[in-house]
Amino acid sequence: MKRTFKARKIFAIFIIVLLLIISSSNYYGIKGIDNLAYVVAIGLDVGDNENLNLSLQISLPNSSGSSSNDSSQSASVVVNSIECPSINTGITLFNSYLGKEVNLSHCKVLVVSEELAGEGIEEYLYTLINDVQFRSDSNIIVSKCDAKTYLEYSAPVLDKVSARYYEIAPTSSEYTGYTESITCNEFLSAMTYTSAEPVAVLGSINSSETQKLPSESSNHDSYYTAGQTPISGEAGVENMGLAVFKDDKFVGELNGLESICHLIISNKLKNAQIRIPSPIENLDYIDLYIETEKQAKSSVYITNSTPYIKSKINVNAKMQSMNRNIDLNDEAITSKIEKSANAFLEEKIYNYLYKTSKELNADIDQFGLYALKYFYTQDEWENYNWLHHYKDAFFDVEVNVNLRSSYLLVDTSE
Questions:
Q1: What gap in Å lies between CA 189 and CA 406, rounded to an integer?
Q2: Tell me: the pLDDT tens digits for 382-396?
Q3: Top-tier CATH class for 276-414
Q4: Could you tell me which residues come within 8 angstroms of residue 32 by beta carbon, excluding any fewer than 6 positions away?
Q5: 254 vs 36, 177, 189, 357, CA distance in Å?
Q6: CB neighbour class for 216 (10 Å; exposed up to 12, middle 13-18, buried from 19)
Q7: pLDDT tens per residue across span 209-229
Q8: Residue 245 C-beta-side C-alpha neighbours within 13 Å
Q9: How many angstroms separate the CA atoms of 222 and 288, rounded?
Q10: What angle (nearest 5°) sits at the alpha carbon of residue 361, between those of residues 200 and 349?
């Protein structure tokens, strides 16, 4: 009986001690969270004296619960910058300055200025990827303005939580085709390929100075790049177009329409809108909603070391511009529209491909994968150097646009 009572007493003491340990660990866990500074975005700029200018957009505590009437960035995040010789040194200095430990586990985007991207970003990408906290699925954006300025203007207008804002913003590419959602991991992988070159999202700020309509874009909104659209509103930044890289160095940019061409060729387009010259009287332009019917078929042939690339593309289209005097059930009219769309897309895709080849010398569509079959060993492939020969490539593009009859409006004027 005494042994049973003693055993129960020991067991009770054990339970009490265990509960104290659990409650203590929870307390210190909560306290630890309060001592962390959660980064939602990183900005990299060229600093003075060969230094790096590191900017961190940090989420403020309880920012998700801020008032719905307060749309300013200061209600949810703060941006701090520092001159430093490296990312790791800068983060250590931030730890001292903030009095909290910088945590990268919630970082959603890496923003790099065009100036720094032109010098090369390999070192910075490998440094971040090597950090166990940094998420490799963070988007990478090349900013036409300073990365610090981009972060300062990047206020979530339609979503009060900055982290969620950065998750949602890149998905606009799925229904516009004006850019592509690129992660740091995807960028780094393409950078190491011997058959392709990487791209990144192109971003900039939207201000009164950038809202002037460029004359060459007056009839084609898809000809814009980031920082050119004449949109006025609360949103401070815009992502439109793509930044093209040769290895780890920025070499040029693509506008919205060129980005659509890239997505079509690389079989990544979901849907988009294009504006084509109208073959119909009393209508200057026609807006078409397009989606790819099936994957583009590309073939590569090599003659005397020169690549010859052929692509066949099938596109479904829905007519969006309407005119009450036009009978859209007339097969002759729909045939004219299809021919106009074919000619328009073929011209734009040709221009896009020759731009990537002759001007940028960057195979961002991974045509090199189709050329691998001509080389039996890795040494043969490396000695040929596809990425060097891509600038000599010639292209043949065939586009077949199908104007879906089920999308056409029926004339009800009679």
A1: 42
A2: 999 999 999 999 999
A3: alpha beta
A4: none
A5: 39, 12, 21, 13
A6: exposed
A7: 665 555 444 456 678 887 777
A8: 32
A9: 12
A10: 75
